[in-house]
Design a protein that fits this description.
The complex is a heterotrimer of chains A (93), B (294) and C (257).
Chain A: E1 2-9, E2 12-19, H1 20-24, H2 31-34, E3 40-44, E4 50-54, H3 62-65, H4 79-83, E5 89-91
Chain B: E1 14-17, E2 29-35, E3 39-46, E4 49-57, H1 62-74, E5 86-91, E6 102-103, H2 106-118, E7 124-128, E8 133-138, E9 144-150, H3 158-167, H4 175-180, H5 194-206, H6 211-233, E10 239-242, H7 249-259, E11 263-264, H8 273-293
Parallel strand pairs in B: 2-5, 5-6, 7-10, 10-11
Antiparallel strand pairs in B: 1-4, 2-3, 3-4, 7-8, 8-9
Chain C: E1 2-8, E2 12-19, E3 22-30, H1 35-50, E4 59-63, E5 75-76, H2 79-90, E6 96-100, E7 105-110, E8 116-122, H3 130-140, H4 144-152, H5 165-177, H6 182-202, E9 210-213, H7 220-230, H8 243-256
Parallel strand pairs in C: 1-4, 4-5, 6-9
Antiparallel strand pairs in C: 1-2, 2-3, 6-7, 7-8
The chains are: A alpha+beta (93), B alpha/beta (294), C alpha/beta (257).
Chain lengths: 93, 294, 257
């Protein structure tokens, strides 16, 4: 399942997509610790699969909460995306 | 005598029940309660068949709304909560159904409900709710394979439409039909943001635009915006629309035109998709429970 | 040399006339639904106030959201450019300028020479700018001018879930029903908008001195929330709403030499 967390508003589209099928194959989930803001968590979804998800309190503020990793000048590869061994995380912006 | 200001955003609340069914002879009685930020629905099923439901505005206290929706659905049936074998709660802050046996996400419930309402061919469900907009891909059993939800921004939601109905002093239930009653389709309102769109609409009215034309411009903008949301996960046939805005022909027809697809229609009320799915999950869970007990 | 800057904002048009290093006048008018007409009126009022004639002004530059709608101007510069120029002139120690108007919020990284190094903009969403505070003040039936001071009277922080001005209005209505003190709601609103603006500022980097310009600079609640959130004393210059117009007038002067 592809879970898209985030939103679109007048200023743009801000989604973090977690591909839960490859995600469930990972046991360590290094993405959680990699995020400097601590936005990710591991949940058991409605179909009883364990996968990463964006914490509820961040889903409507993605543009702002992800801002530390997205400076205007000199943007480096995103820590969460880099940490994932399954290539299961992607950002839409 | 004080003149009560007409609340144009207020839509009709109601309950319904199948008088031909006798719940006392049912084997599995389940309920689904969907407490959204704007509206709440409770659905009662007898052996997987729809028996009764209610649709009302969510009050300031969610657990209270859950209880009210449930008792309203059971009204005049003689049924009480004790007669229900399994209840699944869902909706925004789904923990707000205190009497539920389990909570399941609104995404999963909408997919499951949509599968029953529209049949196993449905693959893309668009739910336009009071304060959110969801795009869901599901398989032939109603299991979610891809989803996207926007509950951050009022554009594309019922609340956004309520703001416009209020601004133009048009009953929200009439917005769709009036928006289609125009000589030619006007350009859509350019601002996505409801706050800015409202200023824009005020400006258009001052420039002599008729109410219907402004409604058309807004419905058109809402439809385009929703199409963008859908295109993020892709639209696969068959396509269906649930939620309150599914009843707004002005948005639905423009959406279909832009997608080049016709949405499936259902004999069920489009606002009960979530609660229906929850009640169906409840049936499966109750049957599983009984099978284990044997 | 006399030059003029016209800043056509979403809510107000600001006109400033500059002679060498002296500001001869500052005039503003509500933008309303016809920015061009409002700009004309404001400019005429400025001329009248100073006793100048249009021919006396060497060059007029426009800035702001409606800068393309300005009548009889020589050229225009962006809001970002105007903010940087204006603030560098008034307070050369500033390295980060935050400009929050009714419809847009901007963060600009300014070099020592007053040039724009980086910028980030919050646009097309009412929650990212002054409209957010306005919408809630209206819902609470508190005049906008008092809303900021009210927030400073709060002693409690309450969470605000809504990230949209429309949803926030509904949330505020529920809070009022639950008897939440208006001061606490006001503070939550100011903290929320400040937090969004600060996230945007972080994208260009928070480098002291940090200045706030634009209409919201008159809101003490917002200045306080920003200062607390960034853990720095935010600088507010005199006539913060005219910094853009000043920047435009300075640009007019530079390019006329």
């Amino acid at each position: 399942m592809k879970a898209n967390y985030g939103y679109m508003d007048g200023s743009g589209e801000y989604f973090i997509t977690i591909n839960t099928d490859p995600c469930t194959e990972c046991t360590e989930h290094p993405c959680v610790a990699a995020c400097p803001v601590g936005m990710l968590e591991i949940i058991v979804d409605d179909y009883d699969d364990e996968a990463a998800a964006v914490k509820e309190e961040h889903r409507k503020k993605l543009k702002y909460d992800c801002a530390p990793c997205k400076p205007v000048a000199g943007r480096s590869p995103l820590p969460c995306v880099t940490a994932c061994p399954q290539d299961a995380i992607s950002h839409s912006w | 005598m004080a003149d009560k200001k007409k609340e144009f955003w207020r839509w009709r609340e109601y309950n319904w029940r199948d008088e031909s069914k006798d719940w006392k002879s049912a084997d599995v009685i389940t309920a689904g309660v969907d407490v959204g930020s704007v509206s709440s629905q409770a659905v009662i099923m007898l052996d997987g068949e729809l028996f009764a439901y209610s649709n009302m505005r969510t009050g300031s206290d969610s657990p209270d709304s859950a209880r009210k929706a449930m008792s309203w659905a059971m009204e005049d049936t003689g049924m009480t909560l004790d007669d229900v074998h399994y209840t699944v709660g869902t909706g925004y802050g789904r923990v707000n159904v205190p009497f539920a046996d389990r909570a399941i996400t609104e995404i999963a419930c909408h997919a499951r409900g949509g599968n029953t309402m529209y049949g196993p061919t449905v693959r893309t469900i668009l739910d336009m709710g009071g304060q959110d907009c969801k795009a869901i891909h599901c398989d032939d059993r109603g299991k979610v394979s891809n989803f996207l939800m926007n509950d951050k921004c009022a554009a594309g939601t019922g609340r956004g439409m309520e703001v416009f109905a209020d601004l133009l002093a048009v009953s929200i239930e009439d917005v769709g039909d009036l928006s289609l009653d125009v000589d030619e389709e006007p350009p859509p309102v350019s601002s996505t943001c409801v706050v800015f769109a409202k200023s824009e609409a005020t400006s258009l009215l001052r420039n002599g635009w008729s109410t219907n034309r402004v409604l058309a411009a807004y419905c058109s903008a809402m439809a385009s915006r929703v199409v963008s949301l859908l295109e993020r996960i892709g639209v696969e046939k068959d396509f269906a629309i649930t939620g309150g805005i599914a009843k707004n022909r002005g948005v639905v027809e423009r959406l279909e035109r832009e997608l080049g697809l016709t949405s499936l229609k259902s004999k069920y009320d489009t606002q009960i998709a979530g609660a229906l799915g929850a009640a169906l999950f409840a049936k499966a869970l109750e049957e599983k429970k009984r099978a284990k007990a044997v | 040399m006399i030059t003029s800057g016209i800043d056509i904002g979403a809510k107000f048009v600001k006109v400033l006339i500059l002679k060498d290093d002296e500001v001869l006048c500052r005039v503003q008018e509500r933008t309303g639904f016809d920015p061009s007409a409002a700009a004309k009126r404001a400019f005429a009022a400025a001329l009248s106030q100073t006793g100048l004639k249009e021919e006396d002004i060497e060059s007029v530059y426009a800035t702001g959201a409606g800068r393309k709608k300005a009548p009889h101007v020589h050229d225009s510069i962006t809001d970002v450019g105007a903010a940087a120029k204006g603030i560098a002139y008034l307070q050369p120690s500033v390295r980060t300028v935050i400009d929050v108007g009714g419809e847009e919020g901007r963060a600009v990284k300014v070099s020592a020479a007053g040039k724009v190094e980086d910028f980030a903009i919050n646009e097309q969403c009412a929650a990212g700018a002054g409209s957010f505070t306005e919408a809630i003040a209206r819902a609470l039936e508190v005049p906008l001018e008092e809303f900021g001071r009210l927030s400073l009277q709060s002693s409690a922080t309450i969470p605000m879930n809504a990230q949209c001005a429309v949803f926030a209005e509904s949330e505020v209505v529920s809070l009022v029903h639950a008897k939440t003190p208006k001061a606490d709601i006001a503070r939550a609103v100011h903290d929320a908008i400040a937090s969004r603006i600060i996230s945007m500022v972080r994208r260009v980097g928070i480098n002291n001195d940090v200045a706030l310009i634009g209409g919201v600079a008159f809101n003490p609640g917002f200045v306080d929330a920003l200062s607390r959130g960034m853990e720095t004393e935010v600088v507010v210059v005199e006539h913060p709403d005219y910094v853009g117009a000043l920047g435009a007038a300075l640009a007019a002067r530079e390019r006329s030499k």
